[in-house]
Amino acid sequence: MPARKRKANDGSINWDLEKIYESFPVLKEQEKNLGTQLSGGQQQMLAIGRALMTNPEFLPMDESFEGLAPVIIDQVGEIVIKLKEAGLSHIDG
Description:
mainly alpha
């Protein structure tokens, strides 16, 4: 999916590569590796980052933590909460 910019002044986050790396620093460390060389958690972060690069108005997510190690769940969970706060996702309790 190609990256696309949001309209200016709409108050939302403009997701670009820098913002993705800020949210998922482990991806910056692995930027020279292919997606198939990443761990399951890193692949999940990559999938979320790729989706965010399209600057969606809403980001549906299903089973975001399936098969991930507890420490990775914490890392991915933090960004999911930030996405909810930005209005991109809905988390059912």
